[in-house]
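pls read this protein:
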Amino acid sequence: MVNGSECQLAYDLRTTADGGAEADAERTFDLTLHCLDRLNELVAPRASDLGAVALTSFWHSLLGLDGDGEPATPVFLWADKRSGPDVGALKEELDEHAIHATTGCVPHSSYWPAKLRWLRRVHPATASSVRHWVSFADLLALRFHGELVTTVSMASGTGLLDVHRAEWLDELLDRLDLRRDALPRLVDRTDPLPPLTAAYARRWPNLAGVPWLPSIGDGATANVGAGCVTPDQLALTIGTSGAMRVIKRCDTFAVPADAWCYRLDRERIVLGGALSNGGNVAAWIAEKHGDGDFDGLTARAATLEPDGHGLTVLPFLAGERSPSWNDEATGTIHGLTLTTDQADLFRAALEAIAYRFAGIYDALADIAGAEHVIHANGAAILRSPLWLQIIADTLNHPVVALREEAEASARGTAICALDAIGARNDLSPPLPIDATYLPDTDRHRRYAAARHRQRRLELALYP
């Protein structure tokens, strides 16, 4: 990345009482334009040093385009749960185990099959007006370059890709009454996009003379940026949500029963699990019960004994993905008393999310090498030494924290771009490490018992 070229703008996620989570496509596009305008200015003194412009984007988004290529729907995000009832119908209509084994995705509201079924059921007129179904990043490719394409990486997060062949799964498309030409053409991360259209080339002259590379899924680039590109390197990410992933280079493979499988490119798969709840839960408690003082709550929670609050928490404020994939799950706090305070709630939530990561870790144990490392990244986790220690203790394994300014997804995107243009011959440059958190045996025993208690509560509520 060109030093000093960072530009970040916040976007507003629109949530609804019935479980919706969406963004306005034009508003999000305008923010992207503003970022690129600023980037064009910032790189001007070093424009001759540029090798490429590369993109990463959020996995799982769904956007409908009309016959003119204009947005016909909002951008539906992974957290949109309104298609939950359609997941059950899909499970009845399809062999869910076969779908998971082929696409790497279980039937769930995060993915396109359920969302498409919901849209046709609830908004049939809107659905019938759609000519192409795309990810938000595909809209950028269409408008900036005049071509509707998506990478196998982005496509692998839709639930419609045969993750083994890296091709759209025609059998599933037929069952969903979806034409292949309604989806973008598949390319790989190393395939340059066509040149910028004339209008955008004039708008960004400092960016117009280099290759533009198509978008890669943000989880895959986070792994690359965290230095986790082989089976003995696990990336643990906590931002708004959470994930734990491992990358493997292989020709043939079986999708593990308790993990999803996406792609970085045609040569590498990404195996892992994702939590719908991460920093969003910690932020919710800080906002609702701690006057927004995240650091103050953290300091108070750090003085408490591990699992010393008497609480059992199911942190499902945004539903749940791995490992239970339960769209109906909601948050639960068991064990409240008159002595429970904000710090108890805060620490209990951090610990509860760590226990969910332990379930993903168990699923990846057979995939990771015996002498594996765990690299932590993401703003929510890297700003909290307490949370890093809790996770190390829960997993009973050292956790290496990256420097917060490393921005793993952006860094990984840059590394992939350098590889694509031949400026590097590997995806493993030196890693910016901040600290290593070592597990404590006694704390691990306490957390193991608490994790078992959490599991019992989950089974009691969601048998």
About this structure: The chain has a mean pLDDT of 95.
